[in-house]
Amino acid sequence: MKFLAVIGNPIMHSKSPRMHNNAIKFLGLKGIYTRYCLNNDLFLKEELLKIGFDAVNITVPFKEKACKIADFKDEISTRVGSANTLCFKNNKIYAYNTDGIGFLQSIEEFKDIKKALILGAGGTALAIAYVLKQRGVDVYIANRSSKRLQYFNAYKNSLYKDLQDFNFDLIINSTSAGLMDEYLPCSKEILHQLLSNAKFAFEVIYNKETPFYKLCKKYDLRVKNGFEMLLWQGVFAFELFFDLKNQREEIKTAMLQALNLD
C-alpha cells in the first residue's frame, strides 16, 4: 500500500487527490493519496520522513526546499533548483520536476512561439523557463521584487516597473495572484501593453477564472489555464510513484475522468 500526498500551503483547493485516487482505482493498484498542509519548511525533510510517505507532490511555496533536501535529483530539478515530486526509497529522497514537461505538453497547440515572458519568479517559473529555453524559445522573466530574480540570471529579467520590451508571443502568469483573491500579477497598464502584442497566454492556476485569465480573453488571445498542465504533471508523477511504463494513456484517462466530475 502506497501512502501518497500533495504538500503545500494553501492546499485545500488541490484536485490532485481526486486525480491520483481515481487512477489508483482505475489501474487496480494499492495506495491512498491525500492532502497535507505544511505551515513552514523548517523541518520539511524530518517531517516527511517521520510521517512515512512513500512519495509526495510538492506545491507552493515549498518546491525549492523540496529540491534542497533531496539526496538524488533528476536533470530538471538539478538545473532549476525546484522539485514538485519526491519519492522515498531506503531512507533516501529522490526529487523530480514534472511541472516543466507538463507545461510543454499542455501548450502543444501553441505554434511558432519564439519569445515568451513569464510573470513571477517562483519554482514553477523556474521549471517553465528551463523547458522553454531548451525548446529554443527566447525567455524573459518579470517580477514584483528583485530578490527572486537572482535565480534567473540565465534569462533576461526585470522588475515589472522596469519592463522596456512588450513584444512577446506568449505571456505566462506563474504567480499565485488570483488564486485566493482577485488581484492581477502586475498593473493593468503593463498588462495592456503586453497583451495587445501577444498571440497566446497561459495561466498556471486551474481551479477558477482568475482576473488575469479574464483579461486575456478580453484581448481575444488564445488563452489556456493550468488544467492540462495539472493533468500532465500528475500523469508523469504517477508513473514515478508506481514505477509504471507504457500505461500513460490509461493514467491520463483516469485522471481526466476525475477532473471532469465538476
UniProtKB/TrEMBL annotation:
Q: What class of enzyme is it?
A: oxidoreductase
Alphabetically ordered keywords of this record:
Oxidoreductase
Write the Enzyme Commission number(s) for this entry: 1.1.1.25
What name does UniProt use for this protein?
Shikimate dehydrogenase
